[in-house]
Amino acid sequence: MKTIIMKNEERRVKNLFGRLLLSALVMASLAGCRKDLCYNHDEHALKVQADVDPEWMQEWENPYTGGEMQFDWEAIWKEQGWPREYDEFRPEIADGIRSIVYTEGAEPAVSNLENYGGLISMSEGVHALLFYNNDTEYIIFDNTDNSATATASTRTRTRGGYTAPQNHEDERTITPPDNLYASYVPAYLAEESLTPDGLPVTMFPRTYTYLIRYRITSGLQYVSQARGALAGMAERVYLNDGHTDATTATLLFDCKVDEKGCTAEVLCFGVPNFAYKTNEYTDDPEKMHFMLRLDVLLKNGKLLTFDRDISEPMRLQPRGGILVFDDIEISDEDGMEGAGGFDPSVDDWGDVIEVPLPID
Predict the structure, then answer these.
(1) What dihedral angle (degrees, nearest 10) is formed by the CA atoms of 281, 282, 284, 288?
(2) 3-state class (DSSP) for residue 24
């Protein structure tokens, strides 16, 4: 009987030892598994990321602080007799952001973010970072493989029967661009971290608006449609710092006919040879000439063209502002020619915007 009890006790001890050993093995296994699942998990691993936090500068014009005469349209807005408020023309923030990470000896890394920002990944080291909105329709981005040469331009626009004003015959005729923002970080040190580094970014405007008023003092009753052109403007803008070079273009745009004449809101890259950061011209502004045109299609089908040299007001407003073309007269002779019947042969009124097609 004693022998049986001893054997049962030995068996109980062995079973207890076995259970303890099994428990230890299970705990060790779970610990190893937990390590694999936690410390090597992507959420807890060391990464090289930046958490982009954009702030949008919603300005449609930037006053020029150089020269003898200053223009502050926000201060004198009501004096100009415009029925709308300054803030109505502020551009909306973009729908999204494209980021490009430039690393020496490597291809640029492109990613897209929401307009409120997000995470971008990169390797350890120093990088240059370029940001611009990715929701444009008419803008063309060129040379983005290099932050120093990345530019934005816009599409060619042609107009039947259009003849360029004097001194602007060699300019490309283009469509006004969309709202464009950009920001550039020349040197960003990226390091491994468990939490992404915060990166505040200011999205500066790279396009500006000119509010154009054509005042027709007589003959407005004969006007059917109107369109305009602004010659001598910058053809492109550099995304990294917002400067423009010497290349000029002519913007073709549509106008709205109202009770005083015609109006237009024209977006552009500003004037040529202008530095955004220093708010100064990079060449003598007296060399620059600008021309504002109005094409009027009368109800009888006759087309009239009016040109005005606006070099002086443009030099004082290199990045958006107000342009007034007043004292436009349409004679009764022009308005009543042809007994008021519309000429159906006038079929070149519409403009053509060239849209490049992808080539396989």
Answers:
(1) -70
(2) helix
Is the residue at 25 inside a domain?
no
3-class state of residue 18 by DSSP: helix
What tokens appear for 342 in the block? Answer: 């519309």
Distance (Å, whole) CA 276 – CA 281: 9
Token readout for 214 is 């054509």
Reported as a single tens digit per residue, the pLDDT across 65-95 is 776 667 777 777 777 777 788 899 999 999 9
Q: Is the pTM of this model over 0.70?
A: yes
Q: How many folded domains does the chain comprise?
A: 1
Q: Give the angle 266-211-141 at the CA atoms, nearest 5°.
A: 25
Q: Which domain holds residue 168?
A: 46-353
Beta bridge partners of 139: 154
Report whether 192 contacts 166 (CB < 8 A): no
DSSP one-letter code for 277: T
Assigned token pair, 13: 């001890």
